[in-house]
Amino acid sequence: MITELGHFALILAFLVAIVQMIVPLVGAHKRWPGWMAVAEPAATTQFLLTAGSFAALVHAFVTSDFSLSVVTQNSHSAKPLLYKITGTWGNHEGSMLLWVLILTLFGAMAAWFGGGLPPSLRARVLAVQSAVSVAFFAFILFTSNPFSRLAVPPFDGQDLNPLLQDPGLAFHPPFLYLGYVGLSICFSFAVAALIEGRVDAAWGRWVRPWTLASWAFLTIGIGLGSWWAYYELGWGGFWFWDPVENASFMPWLFAAALLHSAIVVEKREALKAWTILLAILAFGFSLIGTFIVRSGLLTSVHAFANDPERGVFILAILVVFTGGALTLFAARAGAMQAKGVFGVVSRESALVANNILLAVSSFVVFVGTMWPLLAEMFLDRKLSVGPPFFNLAFTPFMLVLGLILPLGSMLAWKRGRVAKTARTLAPAFVLALALAGLVWAMQTGRSMMGPIGVFLGAWLVAGAATDLWSKTGRGGSVRRLVRLPRADWGKAIAHGGLGITMLGVAGLTAWESEDIRVAQIGERFEVGAFELELADVSRVEGPNYLSTMAEVVVRQDGEEIVTLYPEKRNYPVAQMPTTEAAIDYRALRDLYVVIGDAQEGGGWVVRTYIKPLANWIWAGCLLMALGGGLSLSDRRFRVAAGAKRATPDAVPAE
Amino acid sequence: MIAAVRSFALSGVLALCLAASAGAVQPDEVLDDPALESRAREISEGLRCLVCQNESIDESNASLASDLRLLVRERLVAGDSDDEVVDFIVDRYGEFVLLRPTTGGWNWLLWAAGPLMLVIAGGVGAGYLRGRSTARDEAADLSPEEQARLSEILKER
Predict the structure, then answer these.
(1) Rg over CA atoms, chain B
(2) Contact A353/B125 with Cβ under 8 angstroms?
(3) Which residues form a coiled coil (chain B) (predicted)?
């Protein structure tokens, strides 16, 4: 019964979305206030109906209603409750429903917080947003209905993929989707502005909070996914340049670019056409990501051929929205006259450089991701593009970005002087150089990667601190520092976070060490500065798995520092083994222990990795997201959100 | 995220390959000569496991990957250079095994795509910046109404 209600709510939401797509758009064109006003309640209704539908699906999962095919295929009665809930989006149908739920949530939020927008712009934004919903409601209802029933329900389900039965992964998709789908609002704003034919400072100011929020969520989502891969896949890799990862990374890079270019629109009324294009591309790449993931096209051409219906549907959505928006852009972009004037050396120019680097690096990822497909289609060559390509082709852009970031972020608006800014930053630069030199001297004959990472990390963090301190005025004081606008803090923290992530990536890659051996029970062996003892291996029974659990005692300088319990699990229902590494997390290094197979001559395979600075990668991601959140809570946005009257001249000069 | 998605899209075989990837290099595969072993590891990282999705043979636990790892070590022990080992594998399995694509044929375009795009974007960006720095500041100009109002004020004085 609840399932039927959920299904019905989904269909109703689809119908509401169709109304919201058409009526406000006509209203905005004809200047009929009544028709325009339809958008707001419709957006709220759409969201509530979708939320109801989603809740019904969660209910089906929690109560293990195996008459639903999606529950049967992805759940099991013995599964812990948390994973019954998160299993709702651990499959194609459910995750698409979550996608649409978040899409309608953003639509509703645009309606709730859009009080300051001119009525026609708001009506158009909500109509465009709803057009996207219509497409995805249709996709769900016609090709991937989560509510389809089985004629003969089985006695029990087939269980969720054990890899997904993990807290890190439970919350990874929602965050990722909040970011992905949040960019839809920027897209709607861009298209609405193109229809309206007007982009001004106020537009830049409205778009920025949405971009900030999406980018921050995307940062957390990607960070969570990477952390999950690190501890779950069993050898501590954190980024694989997998097509699916790239699919989320490209929108992130575009969102980061958009975030910065919207500042120029807001402050200087320049870069308008480019910003609109970025907004379209950012969401376009979210759609491409969805397409890549859902169609399975890049995983294997055959996966696509097996189920072409879904792939073609999403491809059609992608072509219609991105293509339509780009056509509209081509027709209208000429009308976007830039107003502001600024020198070649200025903050504006630095932001242009930031945009070029981010957009081109995203383009490199795109070409690398698509190349195997293109080569197979047009050149008849089956080839692979893997991590070695991306590391080589992508990393230089990030190095340059890190190098110019502190300088660019402190240049004066309109007309800056490099020499003056460089003088302010000299201490930070010297400090970073000194640290890098120290590290270079201390390491023994290994790559330059470590010292470069240390330099960039220190340069970015010290640069961000210098930026903050310089804002407190001559002979700054701590009290002034605390009172700086939150946007300033957000900027400094996010930039520092980027440095910390870069440092973590470089440190882990450069200084990682590993040890692979067969150990007998009771055997002690040394790995780096640690002495490990394989104390015991026992069989343990979990709720829906059987585990082989080792007890490894770790000593340093003769003192016991920690006991680790690495596991090898087997999930009988899903017939799948997983590895649960045991990790001793410390600030400067992780000790990562994995238990392998029993050997014929007795003993077990034990793998030990020392991973320096691993945590810094995710700490940096958190800081970046925190910076985004702080900027978002800045007074300017809160005031703008609550304002009843928002006219272009209300924009502060600086 | 890889998993979230991989699990939907993949058949059981591929998923198994991923899940078990913790295995990777086995103790009995490791060569006694550390210099040779580290060369073997480096080569393995650049070769793709053919039955897995986007995993090198160094990371994969599939039996095929294990065979390839042993093959790489066999060739190294036989005295092949790194390039010879890679060529040996590519001859048998095709360029699909190379995680780092060659620059041969149209592949130069893949490698040049980034730098080319940077040059183009840099050129367009520089042109734009020049335009902005020499343009007249319209925001500073007065509209006709403002101009009229200004002259009115000036007249009053």
Answers:
(1) 30
(2) yes
(3) none
Domain B2-97 is of which CATH architecture?
Orthogonal Bundle (1.10)
Asked if B18 lies within 8 A of A342 by C-beta distance, the reply is no
A117-170 pLDDT, tens digit per residue, is: 899 999 999 999 999 999 999 999 998 899 999 988 888 888 888 877 888 777
Distance from CA of A601 to the nearest CA of B (A): 12
- Determine the residue type at A403: L
Q: Which residues pair with A533 in a beta bridge?
A: A524, A553
Q: How many CB atoms lie within 10 A of CB B96?
A: 16
Are residues B9 and A379, on separate chains, in Cβ contact within 8 Å?
A: no
Reported ipTM: 0.84
Q: From the centroid of its chain, how far is CA A419?
A: 37
3-state SS of A51-111?
Answer: HHHHHHHHHHHHCCCCCEHHHHHHCCCCCCHHHHHHHHHCCHHHHHHHHHHHHHHHHHHHH
CA distance linking residue A596 with residue A605, whole number of Å: 5
Cβ-Cβ contacts under 8 Å, B95 against chain A: 381-384
Contacts of A382 in chain B (CB under 8 A): 94-96
Of the candidates A112, A6, A89, the residue with the CA atom closest to the CA atom of residue A49: A6
Of the residues B6, B7, B11, the best mutation for testing chain A's interface (the one with the most A CB atoms within 10 Å of its CB) is B7
* In contact, B22 and A233? CB cutoff 8 Å: yes
Q: What is the pTM of this model?
A: 0.90
Look up residue A614 and give its two tokens: 């691993």
Is the minimum CB–CB distance between A550 and chain B shorter than 8 Å? Answer: no
Q: A339, B125: Cβ pair inside 8 Å?
A: no
Domain boundaries, chain B: 2-97, 107-156
CB burial of residue A237 (10 Å; 0-12, 13-18, 19+): middle
From CA A605, how far away is CA A158, in angstroms rounded?
31
